[in-house]
Amino acid sequence: ALLDVAGGSFARLEDGSGGPGTICALVGARTAKTGDTITLASETGARGHLLAGLTPPPPVLKVRLEAQGAEDARRLAEALELMTVEDPSLVATGTEGAGEKDFRQAAITLSGLGELHVEVALDRLRREHNLGNVRAGPPTVECHETLTASVDTNGDYRFSRSLGGSVFSADIDLLLEPTRDPDGPTFLPPRDPSVALSPSVREALDLPLDPDFDEDLTRPDANPAARAAVGGILGSLRRGPLGSGPLCDIVCTLRGLEAGSPLALRNRPGGARAAVATAAREVLERARREGIVATVEPVMEVEADVPGEEVGSVLADLNGR
Fold first, then answer.
1. Top mean-pLDDT range of 138-147, 209-218, 271-280
2. Do β-strands 135-136 and 140-141 pair in parallel, antiparallel, or remain unpaired?
3. Which of 29, 111, 240, 266 could form a disulfide with 62 if both were Cys (CB 3.0 to 4.6 A apart)?
4. Comparing C-alpha atoms, which of 60, 134, 130 is closest to residue 95?
């Protein structure tokens, strides 16, 4: 519903539209978050352009939250879901079904862009949501992992497995490369892994070969086989092989994907997903054995001007962090 909020009236706009100067509020957009751009659907039913929303930087600091009871755990989960919609740079995990399981086993964590960001969020939980009994653990730093050199499947990786009562076989050739310049700037935010498809793979997945063609292949309405292949790779690249954190600053190029015929890939996207995911995990394990996986720790450059008599206490505080 579209509401007219001028003067605090919150009157419903019956025709569902507002003219120039009208201040409106859209109610019921459950999947929209702060920073999303909402467009009207075409009257002809044709799919319009999907506009990119706000892409917040990844969180760098995390705290674990502990509720005092099952009811508080449920209220905490609901409050965090609202806060993460309002502020996409906040990330909450473990909120699913928090009130339905033993609250002592509910590992609810809150991540933000820094200590002050998390402290403000905790203060909002106490003031706005009346959750003063929630305890926060000590903050921990969110580390990432990346590659220091390129690694590939060393030829085609053969995947053969029984899926859904029949055997699915495929040959996969993929390459993992670091995207960060070792001689470049040090203070750069980590970037999520990305996937590139070679022309032969695009042809096998029935995708346009135009190099300027750009489509989000993770969308629900994307090409099913391509979405399965990209999703399988990204799923395997979610965590680093060292186990210290998620992967960052790498690109995976899928150079070859053959399953007998293109029709086999298009008819069995689940098989394609399992095949490329397994190949990506094997390449990551090889990178770990070769010692080309590194831990990326957050680095912050701080300059502080303090009175001379306070230098000792400030240094002690910094050294204790």
1. 271-280
2. unpaired
3. 111
4. 134
Q: CB 262: neighbour CB atoms within 10 A?
A: 15
- pLDDT, residue 182, reads 67
Confidence of residue 288 (pLDDT cuts 50, 70, 90): very high
Could you tell me where the beta strands, DSSP code E, fall in 182-229? 194-197
Residue with tokens 């080309």: 292
Same domain, 19 and 79: no
Residue 252 and residue 226 in one domain: yes
List CB contacts of 90: < 8 A, sequence separation 6 or more.
59, 80, 83, 84, 110, 111, 112, 117, 121
Q: How many domains does the chain have?
A: 3
Q: What is the pTM of this model?
A: 0.60
